[in-house]
Amino acid sequence: ADSTIYRASTTAPVNIAVVKYWGKRDPKLNLPTNSSLSVTLSQADLRTLTTASCSASYLASEGDSLLLNGEPSDVSGARTQACFRELRTRRAALEAADPSLPKLSTMPLRLVSENNFPTAAGLASSAAGFAAFVRAIANLYELPASPSELSLIARQGSGSACRSLFGGYVAWRMGSAADGSDSMADQVAEAAHWPEMRALILVVSAAKKGVSSTSGMQQTVATSGLFQERIARVVPQNMDAMEKAIKERDFAAFAEVTMRDSNSFHATCADTYPPIFYMNDVSRAAIRAVEAINAAAGRTVAAYTFDAGPNAVIYYLEQDTEAVVGTFYHVLGDMDGWKREVLSGLKPTLSLD
Ligand code: PMV
């Protein structure tokens, strides 16, 4: 029997949304209620490295498996299974068209995945994780798929993952097709278009988030009236304004939309019944610190944004590093518990842990 082990590796970066994805119109296919836009962070700082392998010698009884940071991880979830199924179907079509190809689609898959940042840092890692997962298998299967096509598959693993198939400034267009065939990501601008962009991550808590994004979204869609206003008017406006700000490299406009959109997203969470609070007192102190930094500079040099947890991501431009990062240490340095911490290879990071 053929004992060849077929193997492929890839890395995928973390992305942080400046116009947030929040709400599923189809939970099964991970179709969103609104478009979203993110900035992909540097791979030198935050990325997932994944190796996919398959072999006829892998025991069929063991099935597909995933080792995440050295720990066996459950792959039986519907989202992970959808990714496996989509990728196998595409490989099987290639094998049907060319019988000389090895039948990789019939072999068990083994995935080994490592983050280059502490998992305990409480940073959303599912985006990089599913993007690397999908591309590693696509490479292994030698699928002739573009990043946008792979984003269609990664989207089914974790919505935000579809944006990590591209670098730079990335939009996920919500689409309108019921089967999700037009709900995918595209690149608004390369990182080189605005190379001065930086992100500072304030680790407020490394604890796992209290309400998962899936259940938070479900509750928001079901119970928030404000959410209807957000998806009908606020997000479409923010998408347009954000694309324009990026094209024109207008940091003040980029920052205002980023902060307004984060506020809008967290307002819809507070508007659910019962309310969901992702930010805490330290998160709010970070917002006040950004406002103080901008006031002291006499112009907008920093923008905050928060995902489904208390950690802050602060966007700023390289030339304003001293005003932003320096002042952050100054303002928050006195606060009990703040300490400067440089996570392995990460940009300057403040931690309250
Ligand atoms: O991809 P998910 O299901 O983990 O949802 C991500 C939701 C936010 O991070 C809050 C917003 C976003 O667009 O990334």
3D architecture notes:
The chain is built from eight helices and 16 strands. Helices cover 37% and strands 23% of the residues. The N and C termini lie far apart (53 Å). It is of the alpha+beta class. 44% of the residues are buried. The strands form four sheets. It has a five-stranded mixed β-sheet, with helices on one face. The protein has a five-stranded mixed β-sheet with strand order 13-14-12-16-15. The protein has a four-stranded antiparallel β-sheet with strand order 2-5-10-11. The C terminus is likely disordered. It folds into two domains: 186 residues, Ribosomal Protein S5, domain 2 (2-Layer Sandwich); 155 residues, Alpha-Beta Plaits, CATH 3.30.70. Bound molecules: (3R)-3-hydroxy-3-methyl-5-(phosphonooxy)pentanoic acid. (3R)-3-hydroxy-3-methyl-5-(phosphonooxy)pentanoic acid binds next to loops. The site of (3R)-3-hydroxy-3-methyl-5-(phosphonooxy)pentanoic acid has 13 residues, from loops.
